[in-house]
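Usage example:
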Amino acid sequence: MNIDLLIGVLRFLLATTLILLLTVPTAFVVIQMELKIIAGAQLRYGPNRIGPWGMFQSTIHGFKVLAKEDHIPDQADRATFTLAPWMVYMAAAMSMLVIPFAPGAIAVDFNIGIVYFFAVLGLSVVGLLVAGWASYNKYSLLGGLRSAAQMVSYEIPLTLSVVGVVVLAGTLNFRELIEWQRVHGWMLIWQPVALVIFYVASLAEINRTPFDMVEADSELVAGPFTEYSGMRFGFFFFAEYVALFIMSGILISLFFGGWLAPWPFPDQLDGFIGTIYGVLWFFIKTYIFIAVAVLLRATLVRVRVDQLMGMAWKVLLPLAMVNLLVTAAAVLVFKL
Amino acid sequence: MTAPAKAGALVRLLLDRFPDLAAGLWTDEDTVEVTIEGERNVALLQVLRDDPELNFFFLADAAAVDYGPTERFEVVYHLYSDRHPAWLRVRARVNRADPHIPTLTDLWEGAMFHEREMFDMMGIVFDGNRDLRRIYMSPDYRSFPQRKDFLLPDDAADSSAAGVRPLERPETWDLTRLSDELAPGVVAHAEAEAEAKP
Amino acid sequence: MTSEVKIPDPLDLDLDEEARLRRVAGLPAAKTPAGEYAGFESVGLPERPPQTEREREVYTLEEGEMLVNMGPQHPSTHGVMRLVVKVRGEVVTDVDPVLGYLHRGIEKLCEEATYTTVLTYVDPMDYLSTMHNEHAPAIAFEKLFGVTAPPRAEYIRALVVELNRVFSHSLMMGFLALDMGGITPILYGFINRDEIVDMLSAISGQRMLFNFFRVGGVNWDTNDEFLSRLGTWRDHVLKNVEMSERVLTDNEVFRSRTIGMGTLSGRDAIALGVSGPNLRASGVPFDVRKAHPYSIYPELEFEVITQSGGDSNARYLQRIAEINQSIHLIDQIVDKMPHGAVQAQVPGIIRPKPGRAYAAIESPRGLYSVYAISDGGPNPYRFRMRDPSFISLQAIPKLMPGRLIADTMAVMASFDPVMGGVDK
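Running the assembly step on the lines above writes:
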């Protein structure tokens, strides 16, 4: 047997296992941040009983979900009902494979990492649609249809905004993209419009307030998740927070230099120390953006479904196209 | 309240428009009350609402009163006008044996819930109301709870839930106990008590 | 005794494709020809013939429509209310409110209670404006019995009633945002509410169902704790209100969700019996405190505030304006409060002479009125309450057709109904 193939397979298994394991604590941390930051915005204490400063509240929530009854409605479509949480969760976990944590700390250093990322993340809409369909519940059905409409619509401006970045950097590989940013400065300076489009569209893509039409607890109870309980619901719940983490990670990789340190610090170190250093900066930046998303949730009310779609098709999409046109023209003219 | 002087103006105006209301006219400190027969309610209230000098544009309340099995129902309307510093109360009498009265929903759409409530609680039928169904009680309910001759045990025995619901001690909860014959469980209970006494 | 119930399987191959898809979509099993009566099964109720023309209309589905139950167990129906919403896709085509899930028969209970205990029965009606619930019966019974409350009692009444109005309106701002997915303003609303509730519990002894009013006065005079809490609260209340308002008033998303939503013209509002802040938001200056002054309101300076919009946003702004107005009234009341007794001499069991009395007050939700009839006995012969949110609910089916599901709850919240009051 080819030894290279074996090593490749082993490496892949190890990487995916590590990434899968990483999703759980990531979700716990993000949920804990949400609990604490929203509590702060609402002048409450937030969780403060379990662990120091209530640190383990979200962990306990996770285990609680494991212990709960897993109920499948009589008239639900059992096969797809069971499958849907996995589809959503795996879409989130698999897109984590290409996230560039630090030099040397990328699970799979794809040459088409960006394409892979958007392809896999887009799969979660299938899971939501299936969940809404299989639940035998009108709220679920409406939620599933909303998720299909919303996520498909927002994927277009989301991807188009990134095309500008790709045209400029000339690569689809996250590592090379960050190297480019090390030389030329963070993409934020070059593509500010794309940043705005990407940020808005990414919030919609992962169903965060103010675009959480899919769950919309005051209208559709819990959207496609209405009939889910126990760990099946837990998977949806985790996937949502993992997706928030991933989106923030991709956002900083694309526009804020990924693992690169900001100005007064040396932007990158070598060797193992360099990896630790990169991971450190990656997490600092990512959690800043997660905190912003959480604060948005504490502040804003939800937009209506027609306003949401109108924004995607009438504002973000034309803007992204103009941005792409200008970028491409600039690249041609100035031979960047 | 400083009403009586100004309520006097309202009384004069009312008597001017409807001389036949004098019989049932009555005032207290801030209310002017007229009594009419049920069939007249729409005609009267329409004038009260549309006459610019009266201008009772707001239907503040519509309630039904049961004056007992041998008497009558009354549907009582309270009206507000920005021209007069007094509430106008219109008491419309309804035959209790055959409780029918014209609907007000053509004058005020908002009378709908009032009339549905009166139908639900008193069983007064509002002719012309196109949505006269129960509003608080369930659709299969058969009694009218706010009538004065409403008795809860009768009602429960009559309802669709009678005899179906498992009660903790059915022998003491027998809802037919108002009938002449005691339920077997109650008899046994009474006998056991009588034996324990002597 | 078990009966064989065949649970339909969505993958049942006996069914044709159409029927299977319809079942999964939650539609009635057989395709209803357009314009035919669909029945109650589609909202999970036993089948029965429709009772009225209107009921047939609501439960008749055109092609592409379906019925969705919102409530009675739904995250945002303000208690146990059920709206049967007929939707075509996301667009609402008809709404039918189904009430009675919280019906306790308080009117009937009050006919069995003495005049003093009636005041305890009315508390849990509209549980966000408990003081107002007691105010109207107290006035009505005083009229019946021919007793007047001493001036200090009237001032204390007006004070607690205005405090109650402030917290009720604060909560409305929060609930309105909550029904649109904004989770923070409700907490700010509860901060405002808690301070006032603590204050009122200091004067009445209870936190929610105060049971503070008596026929001929109030139960207790003010005490030190109440006054000190009132002072502390007054120092920072304007800042608190501004804080909760700032989250919403100029928020672009909130404005786009409320402006032009559920627009109710003044004429329609009057026809529907909508009253209180909701009516004034439509531009009709009808405030019972001015229109039929009761208690000490003739002695206080205030203007009736109105808005011109008549939409959800106008109703929201109206609440904020009324909070500030109430704070202004509270200042005047505290300034002018006389000394003296807080209760008139009233026997333990009140037996008024036979008569009728009508008393209306301005509750946070509108015109709340009581019509009491005495037959000379110790309990009222008939005790009728007109709850404003019950009547205001009629506006919802008028406003919703053509709007989206998302707006159903948002517009309903802007009317601020409280199910305890709606269902009596």
